[in-house]
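Regression test case RT-17, inverse folding.

Input:
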């Protein structure tokens, strides 16, 4: 639920067993020291609330592809304070809503490469580091749609 594990100095979270987890509430893991998240086999996950992993030190990759039922990411759900921050985000094709600043990297103008396995209607209004997404493209090199951003307001 909401605020369940906030402010507890947690560093790593693994949802690697299919436990039937469907919902991660607002601020559930905010204000920790989380640098690593694993959602491998989190097949039942449908919803990640606003601020769920906010005020953490996430870096590297966030892979939600095993969460095939996931359809909602809340406001600032994965905001991080790590310089360089999140490099890649992999989202399942079922995703229908990504709220503003979902992958914001505070103190850094870097932006993650977001990969979705289908084109989606949520692309323009999603904002990362104050940059609205401009359009989606698909390369011949892989099976994902990639987001590009308007000119950075972070200078």
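Golden output:
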């Amino acid at each position: 639920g909401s605020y369940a594990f906030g402010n507890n100095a947690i560093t790593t979270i693994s949802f690697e067993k299919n436990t039937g987890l469907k919902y991660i509430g607002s601020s559930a893991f905010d204000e920790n020291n989380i640098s690593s998240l694993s959602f491998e086999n989190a097949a039942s996950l449908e919803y990640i609330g606003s601020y769920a992993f906010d005020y953490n030190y996430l870096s590297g990759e966030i892979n939600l592809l095993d969460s095939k039922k996931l359809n909602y990411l809340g406001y600032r759900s994965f905001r991080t304070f790590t310089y360089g921050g999140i490099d890649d985000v992999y989202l399942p094709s079922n995703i229908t809503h990504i709220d503003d600043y979902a992958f914001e990297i505070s103190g850094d103008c870097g932006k993650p490469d977001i990969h979705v396995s289908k084109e989606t209607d949520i692309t323009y209004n999603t904002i990362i580091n104050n940059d609205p997404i401009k359009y989606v493209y698909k390369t011949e090199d892989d099976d994902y749609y990639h987001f590009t951003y308007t000119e950075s307001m972070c200078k």
